Amino acid sequence: MLKKTTKRLLISYLLILAVAQLFSGCMTFRLSKADIDEQFKNTTFKPTEHRIKVLGREINYVEIGKDSLPVVFFVHGSPGSWSAFSGFMKDEDLLKKVKMVSVDRAGFGYSDLGNGEKSLEKQAAYLKPIVEKYKQKDQKLILVGHSLGGPMLARMAIDYPELIDNLIFVAPSIDPTLEPARWYRYILDSVFIRYIIPRSFRASNLEILYLKEDLEAMLPFWKNIRQPTIVIQGKKDVLVHPDNAKFAQKMLINARSVQIWLKDDMNHFVPWSNPELIKEAILKSL
Length: 286
Fold this sequence. Notes:
- It contains eleven helices and eight strands.
- It is of the alpha/beta class and 286 residues long.
- The protein starts with a helix and ends with a helix.
- Strand 5, helix 5 and strand 6 (166-170) form a beta-alpha-beta unit.
- It is globular, with a radius of gyration of 20 Å.
- It has an eight-stranded mixed β-sheet, sandwiched between helices.
- The longest helix has 23 residues, at 2-24.
């Protein structure tokens, strides 16, 4: 009986491994050069890709638009890549008003895919030199973060306030008390499972596993955030609790202004389902 059970478990494991490896190829969220050329073939501007070494990591990002314009810096969720915001980079109205930069966070896209970073403080440090590059003295820089990109915005504003003028949180996971149970994430992080799931999900699982503690450590520092802020949140969001918007309102006590845009019929995937709200927030921030 034990022999049969062991055999079945081994076969099941091998099947999971085979399916996961097959699945992982289409779950990288990465755009090849050919994909980028195809997506932007009829546009005035085309994104330029860059890679930079930061603290031993290679971080990938793209830029598009005129250097003289204010800068919008996009930070994606988990999992994801810079391409989550490629639709905005094709918007001719926005391109007349802003330059856009979008980054592959550590462990995603072409930024060392699969090797995630559990510390928000370190993730912010990886982004700092890129933001510094675009933060010119007379140019406004607006940070836009979706989902787990939201805590990244808060960490950047806490650690490097001189680099950021405005914040736009989109369905942000920022309240530690609203983080869901994590028992299954410990299983996914085990040595038996970690390396058979798609690499982007491996990186995602790692950072979400430690997110609650990082958010708790940030609680005393929210009062230091002073940038004008817009929070966009849907009441039908089943991945990030809508009350995260209330948390932002409560914690941003010293921000020069805070606007909460709470939409009854909106889900978590705002960059794709309601991009017009993010565009409106960018234009208001200008």
